[in-house]
Amino acid sequence: MDTQFWLERWEAGQTGFHQGVVNDYLRRYWPTLGLEPGSRVLVPLCGKSLDMLWLGAQGYRVIGIELSRLAAESFFSENGLTPEIHEEPHYTRFVHEKTELICGDFFRLSAADVGPVDAFYDRAALIALPAAQRPAYTCQLAKLTGRGTPGLLITLDYNQLEMSGPPFAVSQQEVSGLFESSCSIEHLLHFDALEANARFREKGITALVEHSYRLRRK
Questions:
Q1: Is the dihedral of CA 48, 50, 51, 55 positive or negative?
Q2: How far apart are CA 69 and CA 7, in angstroms?
Q3: What is the pTM of this model?
C-alpha cells in the first residue's frame, strides 16, 4: 500500500475507519498515563479524529500527522475551527491554538519537524498499515519520541483470511515483537467486540477482539 491508496480513499469518501465519537478506551486509559496539563501529544496518521479534540479539551497540546490534506482541512472545517496554515518544503502545518496538524508523509518527518513529544496515541495508525510496513512505523515512532515517553495503543485482532484489511489484524504477539525493543508494554484490555461491529460481521468476520496497551519508551 502506497500513499496514493490513502489519498484516493479520502477523495472517494471511503473513510469507514473514522469514528464519529471519541474513543471509549482513550477516555478510560489516557488518565492513567499521568501527564501534566500542557503536555504535547503525538497522534500519528490522525485523519480527522475527534480524539484530538478530546485531548485538547483535557488541556493537552496535540500534534497530529496526516497524509491527506483533505482530511486535515476537514478536521478543522467540520469542527468550526480556522487554522493558520504554514507551507514547508515537504509538509504543511495547520495550527489552531493548542492543536497542530502536520500534513505530510509520516515516514519522512524528522524529530525537528515534529518538535518535542511528551506522549503518543495510536488508535488507527498501526492497524492501517500492512505487516511489511509496521516495523518501519515503530522505528519512526521511536525516532520521534524520547526515553520515558508514554503512549496508548489500540489494536484489532481477527482472522486475516476472513478480510484483507485495512484495518489489519495485529495480534498481541505481533505487538510484543514490534515494540519490545523500544518500549515497555502493559496489556490493559482484551475485549470481544464483534457484536458491536456490524461492519465487520457483514464482511464475514467471525471473531473480533480489541486490545489496549500502555507503552513507555525505553
A1: positive
A2: 9
A3: 0.94
